[in-house]
TrEMBL record, chain A:
It comes from the Eukaryota. GO terms for biological process: maturation of 5.8S rRNA; maturation of LSU-rRNA. PANTHER family: RIBOSOME PRODUCTION FACTOR 1, U3 SMALL NUCLEOLAR RIBONUCLEOPROTEIN PROTEIN IMP4. PROSITE patterns: BRIX. This is Ribosome production factor 1. It comes from Daphnia magna. One of its GO terms (molecular function) is rRNA primary transcript binding. One of its GO terms (cellular component) is nucleolus.
From TrEMBL, chain B:
Residues 268-278 have a biased composition (Basic and acidic residues). The gene is EOG090X0F8M. It comes from the Eukaryota. Residues 192-293 are annotated as: Disordered. Residues 6-118 form the Ribosomal eL28/Mak16 domain. Belongs to the MAK16 family. InterPro entries: Mak16 (IPR006958), Ribosomal_eL28/Mak16 (IPR029004). Its main location: nucleus. Keywords: Nucleus. One of its GO terms (cellular component) is preribosome, large subunit precursor. It comes from Daphnia magna. This is Protein MAK16 homolog.
Length: 336, 293
């Protein structure tokens, strides 16, 4: 029965194994010990029991795996297709706003947003990077590295100006984007990206910042060239994700210099955007060697606003600050 | 007036609920207290004639208490709103407390001054950008951190990036920068293969296809390993055909000259003689003593 189903539906998720009578008895016993565990007050004994229980479970699992492998080999071509493990990505709640590449309307909408002019290569981005007042050393280093990563970016100190005023003066000086790194407890913890001529503004929470000098390889700074990197945007599935990815992409020059072999990646996984900066080399048709340079950090979108920065009267496209209970309804629901 | 001393003797010596004792001083927590300290002259309970200045929502008020009203606790305190400008307010105090003891007048004016100063400061701060302190919810923070770790593991970044780069290479976004002739070469060869497969028998066709699918490995070690494995399987075949020795020696010399593109040259050889080349490959690269004979 199981194999018939498998044959029909290739992408079947793991089903519980068929149990014999002895298996069932063993399972019952395990269940009972597990229930009994919660009543044991002695932590040492309880942990020991738990360890033995886990061992048994693992043993059973391994045996099952072996069996299945044997059966598959024995059957050869007629073997049932390999079971696919259930992951959070397979069982993700389907989002209405998932972008379907084939849908013309959707792609039209996406391509004709505020970043249309960037993607039609009419301008070169010019970025102003700044921080909050009195940045500490880590933040300062981080900002310096960002200036090396974003081509044509400049760093200026805040000097107690408000964001709105900054945006005004940046517009006058022909900047196309403003990036403000917020600091808390001596460590960068937030990034505000604002696209200038009335563009969208997004606020990300930064975590796990690792600077170039903390990387494994020494003297990596020497490998930083000024070639324009190419941007890789992975796994942005919904409309919101597309908006965010376009925003991040527009911070870089539209025309990368492939000779420099620099790649900057924004990889979205479960609403966490991982930033990496690599130098790559194609060893062959099917292998590429990566060498990580530059900082790495994780971003998490906190809100996205239609116009430039205006927290009070702005038009929020997406915000999660006060609406956690509405939005985080399930563990399988992601927004990007 | 008579009660004052009695009240004070009781409050001072035994217990007053507004009194706060610290190491150096005694404070009075009564909201109407003028100086905030617990003194005979500053205690609002022990003085039937008393005045204070208090602030409410940015407005300063003068509170006065007289002997005549000491019997009516509800109406004891008279509340007068003072002007917002400091000068006028001071004059108002002078006017209302005209025949009052100097201590009370002085202290009221001082208090008014202090209050107006801190009100100015508050107004200035309100106009500047305030840092919004957002409390960290510990559970949320812990949860987010844990989920980030798990997402990182699930992301398998290196392989994802590699895949994407290779895809771009295939698509041709890099143009002519990377000279992998393999691409066009392979395609041409595959076309040839298909044609040949149709003409020849199945066995050899299969071998060729396998050849085509073999990944190009420029790294010698891995090539050697793979080929060693194959040689073990195919040794038997070779023993049967003796006349291949000569050709084998020729191809060996070829391989020694060309290093990095070893696999490429090998493929060249195979293309000319599809049927037998495979065996040559394996034999030449594996270290089998039989061959030296």
């Amino acid at each position: 029965m199981e194999s018939a189903e498998n044959a029909e539906n290739a992408e079947v998720l793991v089903k519980p194994p068929t149990l014999t009578a002895s298996d069932r008895l063993a399972a019952k016993k395990r269940f009972r010990t597990q229930r009994r565990l919660s009543t044991m007050k002695n932590k040492v004994l309880r942990n020991a029991q738990w360890a033995t229980l886990k061992k048994e479970k693992r043993k059973v699992k391994k045996e099952g795996q072996k069996q299945r492998k044997k059966e598959a080999e024995a059957l050869g071509d007629k073997a049932p297709p390999k079971q696919i493990p259930r992951t959070i990505e397979n069982t993700r709640e389907a989002d209405i706003t998932t972008v379907d590449r084939d849908d013309e309307e959707v792609t039209f909408d996406i391509t004709h947003d505020e970043y249309e002019s960037y993607f039609s290569k009419t301008y070169v981005p010019k970025i102003l990077i700044t921080s909050s007042d009195n940045p500490h050393s880590k933040t300062i280093h981080f900002i310096r590295e960002l200036t090396k990563i974003f081509p044509s970016s400049e760093c200026q100190w805040r000097k107690r100006s408000s964001v709105k005023k900054m945006i005004q003066s940046a517009k006058e000086k022909d900047y196309t984007d403003v990036v403000v790194i917020n600091e808390d407890r001596r460590v960068p913890n937030g990034m505000l990206v604002s696209h200038l001529p009335d563009g969208p503004t997004a606020y990300f929470k930064i975590s796990n910042v690792k600077l170039t000098k903390d990387m494994k390889y020494k003297n990596i700074i020497k490998e930083f060239t000024t070639h324009r990197p190419e941007v890789i945007l992975n796994n942005f599935q919904t409309r919101l994700g597309q908006a965010v990815s376009r925003m991040l992409a527009s911070l870089f020059h539209y025309d990368p210099q492939f000779k420099g072999r620099r790649a900057v990646t924004f990889h979205n996984q479960r609403d966490y955007i991982f930033f990496r900066h690599h130098r790559y080399e194609f060893k062959s048709q099917k292998r590429a060697a990566l060498r990580e340079l530059g900082p790495r950090f994780t971003l998490r979108l906190k809100w996205l606003q239609k116009g430039t920065f205006d927290t009070i009267e702005g038009d929020y496209e997406w915000i999660i600050a006060g609406k956690r209970h509405e939005m985080e309804t399930s563990r399988r629901r992601f927004f990007l | 007036m008579e009660n004052d001393d009695i009240v004070w003797s009781i409050i001072n010596k035994s217990f007053c609920s507004y009194k706060v004792n610290t190491k150096t001083q005694r404070f009075c927590r009564n909201e109407y207290n003028l100086t905030g300290l617990c003194n005979r002259s500053a205690c609002p309970l022990a003085n039937s004639q008393y005045a204070t200045v208090r602030e409410e929502d940015g407005n300063c008020f003068l509170y006065m208490k007289t002997v005549e009203r000491s019997g009516f606790p509800r109406n004891m305190w008279e509340k007068v709103k003072l002007s917002k400008s400091l000068e006028k307010a001071l004059r108002q105090i002078n006017e209302y407390l005209v025949y009052w003891p100097g201590f009370t007048r002085q202290k009221c004016k001082q208090r008014l001054l202090k209050i107006s100063q801190y009100l100015i400061r508050m107004r200035k701060l309100r106009l500047r950008r305030q840092k919004k302190l957002v409390p960290i919810q510990r559970k949320q923070d812990r949860r987010e951190r844990r989920r980030e770790e798990k997402a990182l593991v699930a992301a398998r970044l290196d392989s994802a990036i590699e895949k994407e780069l290779l895809e771009r290479l295939k698509r041709g976004t890099y143009g002519d920068i990377y000279n992998f002739p393999q691409v066009a070469f392979n395609k041409a060869l595959e076309e040839e293969e298909d044609a040949e497969v149709n003409m020849e028998g199945d066995d050899y066709g299969e071998d060729e296809e396998n050849e085509g699918e073999e990944p190009d490995e420029d790294i010698d070690e891995e090539l050697e390993k793979e080929l060693e494995e194959e040689s073990e399987n195919e040794e038997i075949e070779y023993v049967e055909a003796d006349s291949d020795l000569e050709r084998e020696l020729e191809s060996e010399s070829d391989l020694e000259d060309i290093e990095p593109k070893a696999s490429n040259s090998v493929k060249d050889n195979t293309r000319r003689k599809p049927r037998l080349e495979i065996e040559y490959e394996t034999e030449t690269l594996s270290k089998n003593p039989k061959r030296t004979v």
